[in-house]
Amino acid sequence: DVTHHTFVHEDMKALYRGFRHDAHPMGILLAGVGAMSTFYPHAKEIDDEEERYMAAIRMIAKVPTLAAWSYRHSLGLPYVYPDNDLDYAGNFLGMMKKMTETKYQPDERLAKALDVLFILHADHEQNCSTAAVRSVGSSQVDPYSAVAAGVAALYGPLHGGANEAVLRMLRRIESVDNIPGFLEGVKNRDEKLMGFGHRVYKNYDPRARIIKKHVDEVLEITGDNPLLDIATELEKRALDDEYFTDRKLYPNVDFYSGLIYEALGIPSEMFTVIFAIPRTSGWVAQWMEMNGDKEQKIARPRQIYTGARDLDYVSIDKREGPEKITGPPARRPVKARRGA
Predict the structure, then answer these.
(1) Which of 152, 220, 249, 308 has the smallest number of CB atoms closer than 10 Å to its CB?
(2) Span 162-263: which CATH code?
(3) Does the active-site annotation cover 216?
(4) Rounded Cα gap, residues 207 and 338, in angstroms
(5) CATH class as words, domain 3-156+268-291
(6) Contact indicator for 123, 277 with CB cutoff of 8 Å
């Protein structure tokens, strides 16, 4: 069923072409996922088991297509249709990479590495984006809109941008010789150690071990990356230092995944877009599980006021101190803006 639904409506091209050439691919993907709710209006019938199933299949099938088109749009290249003779990861690589060849054939080792990343990123407890999907979905909105909320949460640099931050860190270190000084900077809080530590895992992230095995295989095909030498030595020195191990700072899934994406020739702004592809299956699974709960209610976190009480109202003209408003009305900051 997933293979059968990889194509998206032709009108989606018009939506994508409306974006500037330099629009961030994640913003384009966010719009594309949200727009699917208008192409499939019956998806709002969330009590219909068949509609729920079809929405799940469509999103898992079509998000790779939308993601690849986001990438092609940023390069000014024509959109490539899915090739359903390829597997899930290979099809995505084809939609990203295909140029003039009649049929794109991805290297099986590269497709395998990407498939492993897809599996490892599919779902991971109640993270920020999953919580967003469940919270928005609890309003009984259609699943496309709920998943769009997950994409929006993943867009944030503290959630989906971690592997990109790792690459920036490795480039800033520049060479293996600079690692001791960098780690001292981390201890002095002058530097940030990206790709280490996790809110759940308090020792070595098991997903990082699996990804690390595939980095060497990918680089055998694509060529050596000096950043790998820096990453390997940084990991070794950090794990030999009690300062980091005592604080449970071990490599996580983001530490090596960015190296694979870069080796595949994928620009850093696409890393989070690729993250969204497998995570869609997790979001959909969470949404379906939530809707199957007969006791499910709309999310409504409590907000508790902790400020001062029993205050007397003071009119504006009689206020003093930091509460007093003086000067002209607030004005919009003047800065260069693009477009209208």
Answers:
(1) 308
(2) 1.10.230.10
(3) no
(4) 41
(5) mainly alpha
(6) no
